[in-house]
Write a structure and sequence with these properties.
Number of strands: 2
Strand content: under 5%
Largest sheet: 2 strands, antiparallel
Distance between the termini: 50 Å
Length: about 160
């Protein structure tokens, strides 16, 4: 059993994922000003962070058993945060553009290197299509993601053969 220590919440969860989703949907939306510090009781790192960075900090320092984040967590977190999709009428800064491009490149790299990434990113094909057809700096990387989603993963030319 895991206890949420976000600003003395003390809500009890059964898994690390449940705890992370609790923080992501119950506590982070209540923060009105970013960058914001971490409000986890006992957290020594009081660096003020933007929402994606704060979420990543929470995931790696407070909602984990010490293992590395898995492909579904990384891919779905980026897509759920809509880090790759331009907001309507958003006053974009260079930082926002950089975050969108970086998030899309991470998704592309996951698709290129990890066999199981495809199954977690495929349900978000429509979102990637919107980005690919936008005027966003991430449109090329999104188009590459779509290409990787529609081609057979890890073709025979990319796998090694061990003949004895």
């Amino acid at each position: 059993r895991l206890i949420c220590l976000w600003d003395n919440c003390l809500n009890i969860k059964d898994s690390w994922n449940d705890l992370l989703y609790h923080v992501m949907y119950e506590h982070l939306p209540s923060i009105s000003v970013y960058p914001s510090p971490c409000y986890w009781v006992g957290c020594q790192n009081k660096t003020k962070r933007m929402r994606p960075s704060l979420l990543r900090h929470i995931q790696t320092h407070h909602c984990t058993s010490g293992s590395k984040p898995s492909v579904p967590n990384v891919a779905s977190t980026l897509l759920k945060l809509r880090a790759v999709v331009p907001w309507e009428n958003e006053d974009e800064t260079n930082i926002i553009k950089t975050i969108r491009l970086t998030a899309t490149l991470i998704l592309r790299n996951l698709l290129e290197t990890l066999p199981d990434a495809r199954q977690y990113i495929l349900p978000h094909e429509v979102t990637l299509s919107q980005i690919a057809f936008s005027n966003s700096e991430a449109s090329n990387a999104a188009a590459q993601c779509l290409s990787l989603l529609t081609t057979s993963p890890f073709s025979s030319s990319s796998t090694s053969t061990n003949e004895t």
